[in-house]
């Protein structure tokens, strides 16, 4: 049975005991645009956070934010494991990065050997992967962690860099109820709403499904605005109608793809992301893979993936995903 838990941050970092010395040490692997702010918030909340990233700039930024920097991912995990309680969080770009970090390398590929995170962890460590990766990669990750004698949660996030910085991410969590309970104080620091979606793997499933809805709805909203423009309807008039009628949705009322109606939307800043088109294309690619694996009738999801893949190939990759409206305008037939 799915358990839903909405959690609002009140006292970040405070656990049931209320004693900072009892907080788990956290090894945080991946300190990029999302992982960096999350690690910062955890450190600011009183957690000991030991981080690692391959990008020197990310390491320096995290160090300045109070994160201890390790010489490798394995060293971060080993340092955290020296505490009475520890947690390993990964936030990496793709499944191959998560798998590679967990397993490490023996040097047979001609590169220097790299110790894996799994080998460095204390027995029965809780691993929480916040990466958005392919469903099949998530299965591999869970199998590797379980085979090494550890526990696993998948906890992909939604809310973009703004949510990561503010500590207001939506967290979609899959795993055993007792492991979710153990991780909840940490989740409450980085997220505003935490939803336990069921067993391990269900968090990622929820993220893939949610972003398929988001991508398809942003395309539909953008097409409606372009159609309204062709019909002589002002953007403000269409917004006033749709936002108070059955067409209302997050893509319209929060991330509106035209400037004016929602002053905080990226359309008012020349589509500076937010949530970049390249990331939407990536997530819809994951949805496409899941559609093909499960065999569902998913024509809208597949078409959305095709449209965003084309958008991300050009300048759209670095723009907010709501910038898809520019592609729709460009490909529309000029008025007679």
Secondary-structure map:
Layout: E1 3-5, E2 25-29, H1 35-44, E3 49-52, H2 56-64, E4 68-69, H3 73-81, E5 86-90, H4 95-103, E6 104-105, E7 114-115, H5 117-120, E8 126-129, H6 135-147, E9 151-154, E10 157-158, H7 160-166, E11 169-174, H8 177-190, E12 191-198, H9 202-230, H10 235-242, H11 250-253, H12 277-294, H13 299-313, H14 324-331
Parallel strand pairs: 2-3, 2-5, 3-4, 5-8, 8-9, 11-12
Antiparallel strand pairs: 1-12, 6-7, 10-11
Helix pairs in contact: 1-7, 4-6, 9-12, 9-13, 9-14, 12-13
Protein name: 3-hydroxyisobutyrate dehydrogenase
InterPro entries: 3-OH-isobutyrate_DH-rel_CS, 6-PGluconate_DH-like_C_sf, 6PGD_dom2, 6PGDH_NADP-bd, HIBADH, HIBADH-like_NADP-bd, HIBADH-related, NAD(P)-bd_dom_sf
Family: Belongs to the HIBADH-related family.
Measured by DSSP, the beta-strand proportion falls in: 5-15%
Strands of the largest sheet, in order across it? 4-3-2-5-8-9
Which structural class do you get from the secondary structure elements? alpha/beta
Mean pLDDT over the full residue set = 92
Low-confidence stretches: 1-18
**CA-based gyration radius:** 21 Å
Helices and strands, in order, run as: EEHEHEHEHEEHEHEEHEHEHHHHHH
How many DSSP-defined strands?
Answer: 12
User: Main beta sheet: strand number and arrangement?
Assistant: 6 strands, parallel
Spatial separation of the terminal alpha carbons: 56 Å
Number of helical runs? 14
Oligomer: single chain
Broad shape? elongated
Helix content: 40-55%
């Amino acid at each position: 049975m799915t358990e839903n838990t909405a959690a609002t941050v009140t006292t970040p970092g405070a656990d049931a005991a209320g004693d900072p010395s009892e907080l788990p040490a956290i090894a945080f692997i991946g300190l990029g645009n999302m992982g960096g702010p999350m690690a910062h918030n955890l450190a600011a909340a009183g957690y000991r956070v030991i981080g690692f990233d391959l990008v020197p700039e990310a390491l320096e930024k995290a160090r300045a934010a109070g994160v201890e920097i390790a010489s490798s991912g394995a060293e971060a995990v080993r340092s955290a494991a020296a505490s009475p309680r520890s947690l390993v969080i990964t936030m990496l770009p793709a499944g191959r990065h998560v798998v590679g970090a967990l397993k490490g390398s023996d040097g047979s590929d001609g590169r220097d050997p790299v110790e894996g995170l799994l080998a460095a962890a204390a027995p029965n460590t809780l691993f929480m992967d916040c990466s958005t990766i392919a469903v099949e990669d998530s299965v591999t990750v869970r199998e590797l962690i379980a085979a090494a004698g550890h526990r696993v949660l998948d906890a992909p996030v939604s809310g973009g860099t703004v949510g990561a910085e503010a500590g207001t991410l939506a967290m979609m969590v899959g795993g055993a109820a007792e492991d979710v309970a153990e991780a909840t104080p940490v989740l409450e620091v980085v997220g505003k709403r935490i939803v336990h979606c069921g067993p391990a793997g269900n968090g990622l499933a929820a993220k893939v499904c949610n972003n398929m809805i988001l991508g398809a709805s942003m395309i539909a909203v953008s097409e409606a605005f372009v159609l309204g423009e062709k019909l002589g309807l002002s953007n403000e008039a269409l917004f006033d109608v749709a936002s108070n009628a059955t067409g209302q949705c997050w893509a319209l009322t929060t991330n509106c793809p035209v400037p004016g109606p929602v002053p905080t939307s990226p359309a008012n800043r020349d589509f500076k992301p937010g949530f970049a088109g390249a990331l939407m294309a990536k997530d819809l690619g994951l949805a496409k893979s899941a559609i093909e694996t499960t065999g569902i009738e998913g024509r809208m999801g597949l078409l959305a993936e095709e449209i965003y893949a084309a958008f991300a190939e050009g300048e759209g990759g670095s723009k907010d995903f709501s910038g898809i409206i520019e592609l729709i305008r460009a490909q529309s037939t000029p008025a007679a």
